[in-house]
Structure formats: C-alpha cells, structure tokens
C-alpha cells in the first residue's frame, strides 16, 4: 500500500540514487517538467541505465507528454526494463491515449495524470480505458492554470471527480498532487488532512522532508484503530447490519472501511 511517492529529476542520477534511500514507498523519476529541453536525451539515457536492474524501491517514470518531441522516444527507451514499476503519463485527456501507450509498452502499469479541464471531464472514460491503467491523479499546477483558479476551493470539484472516477473504475484511491512549499510542513499537514477527507490515499512529495508528514496524515490514529477493531469484532459476532452500544451503525460498507484502517495500521506496525 503506497502512501508516499518522491519525485526526483531524471537528469540528476545522483539525486535519484539518494531518493531511493530516503524512505519513500516509491520514487518517481521525472523526465518532464524537472528536466530542461537541453538535457532531455541525457535524462532518458540515465534513467534507462538505472532501470536496467531492479532498484531497492519501486520506481515509476513520468515521461514527457505523448504529443511532445520526446514522449515517444521515452516510451521506446523505457519499455521492457527490469527495474520499471510503472509509467506516469502527463496531460492525458482522452482514453485513446492510454490504449495507444498500452499497446507500445507491453503491459507495464500505467498511471494517468489529468491536468486539463477536458481530462477531468473524461476522468471515468480514461480510468476504464485499458486494463494496464492502474491509477489516476491530478496534475494540479497545470490544472490551476487551465481553469484559471487560485483558491483551494476551486479544485474541490476536480479532486472529488478523480476520486469518484477511480473508485467507479475499480482503481486504487488516487494520491494527492504535490504540495509546492517544501518549508511549510504545517500547511502540508493541513492539506493532507483535507485530501484524506476527500478520499485520497497518500501523496507525492518533491522533498524528502515532506515524507513523514504525509505518512502521519494518512496512517490511522490509535482511536481509529480501536474503533475499526470494535467494528470487526461486532461484525464477526453478529453478521448483518447492527448498531453498536455507542450508537454507531455497522453495515458492509463500514466493515470494509474498518478492514482498510487495519491494513494501514498493520503497515504502521512494520515500519
């Protein structure tokens, strides 16, 4: 269960090597926004060399946009590498893009980044475009620019939309987009709590200092673990819907949520 994703620029292999050892559940090597045009080819070659063997944690690669001069070459260079856990596809706006990439990449897990109004509108179609698609998320910086919004409230609907689309298509809950201020960890914690309330699970980070904050925000508190254990104990004792002595109503949906809480708690116990 991945809660923390750490971005690292593909044209700086020494930074990628450090990122692999900073405690993130997975690392995203970025060939797109973090790499200047003059270093695109170097970043691609360095990343392909890195992924010729399996790294210590799962590594996904955010390739360049499919309609850019570099996207096709990224897919060709990375497909079939032993160390590649997944491809993150930026600026997806149509299900056909997912199918086209899946046909080229031989079954590697794909992750669609929705960064435009059109992509958000088509979220469910994209989410069920191909079995190789494993997840959706928002690219919020580009989406803000496309929508012309500055306040957080302006992204509430797109965020809920991608959560609902992922669930409806049977995908894992989306991870939150990156928090751009690496110094304000308090604001990051508040933002993560808001994302968790909206149905997100985990978050991408742009600095290792953000990782513990994200993990704490998404792991259940002791009271949540106790409540989940009570729900499951009651469900085992009395199958079907029932009310607990404190008034909480227990039905299959509540039981499923309790199982997820305990799965996260088990992760916490092994850290």
On the 0 to 100 scale, the average pLDDT is 94
SS field, number of helical segments = 12
Give the end-to-end Cα distance, rounded to a whole number of Å: 12 Å
Envelope shape:
globular
Helicity level: 40-55%
Q: Strand order within the widest sheet?
A: 6-5-4-3-2-1-7
User: Class by helix and strand content?
Assistant: alpha/beta
What low-confidence regions span 5 or more consecutive residues with pLDDT below 50? none
How would a textbook summarize the main sheet?
7 strands, parallel
By DSSP, the count of extended strands is 9
Query: Helix-strand pattern, N to C?
Result: EHEHEHEHEHHEHHHEHHEEH
Describe this structure in words.
With 271 residues, the chain is of the alpha/beta class. Helix content is 46%, strand content 14%. It has 12 helices and 9 strands. The protein has helices spanning 13-19, 40-50, 71-78, 95-105, 117-121, 123-127, 140-147, 156-168, 185-198, 211-218, 222-237, 252-270; strands spanning 4-9, 26-30, 59-62, 84-89, 110-114, 133-138, 203-205, 242-243, 249-250. Strands 6-5-4-3-2-1-7 form a 7-stranded parallel sheet. It has a two-stranded antiparallel ribbon with strand order 8-9. Helix 9 packs parallel to helix 10. The two termini are 12 Å apart.
